Amino acid sequence: MASNLKTYRTSKGWSQAKLAEKAGISTQYIGMIETKVKFPSSDMLQKLAIALKIDPSALFYNEVKLETIKKGIQKDLLKKFGETFCSIINSYIDEKIKDLDK
């Protein structure tokens, strides 16, 4: 769990302080979780997951690899790009059709 938390945090380029700020908890507590000194409560896990925009269960997957996270981000970006591109093309086509109907 601790290494997954750190992997998700660093994949966003966040320091422990940034994650702590987003989750509304102390930087020291993040450090204690990542060094396995403390184990977070279910409420704390929820706060961390919300801050990281992940499902809380993702923190418990077997050693999440940074490469896996990057691939997921790339897929999401490509999908959003495709949706935006299609929307722009469809708007352009609609305008051209309207011009032809004039």
Notes on the structure:
- By secondary structure, the chain is mainly alpha-helical.
- It has two domains: 1-62, 434 Repressor (Amino-terminal Domain), CATH 1.10.260.40; 65-102.
- Helix content is 72%, strand content 0%.
- The chain contains five helices and no strands.
- It is elongated, with a radius of gyration of 20 Å.
Q: What's the SSE blueprint?
A:
Elements: H1 2-11, H2 16-23, H3 27-34, H4 42-52, H5 66-101
Helix pairs in contact: 2-3, 2-4
Overall, the morphology is elongated
Total helical elements: 5
- Structural category is mainly alpha
What oligomeric arrangement do these chains adopt? single chain
Specify Rg, calculated over alpha carbons. 20 Å
Number of self-contained structural domains: 2
Tell how many strands the DSSP assignment holds.
Answer: 0
Average pLDDT, all residues? 89
Q: Which strand-content bin applies to the residues?
A: under 5%
- Largest beta-sheet details: none
Order of helices and strands: HHHHH
Per CATH, the class of the largest domain reads Mainly Alpha
- Percent helix among the residues? over 70%
Level-2 CATH architecture of the largest domain: Orthogonal Bundle
Low-confidence runs of at least 5 consecutive residues: none
Distance between the termini: 63 Å
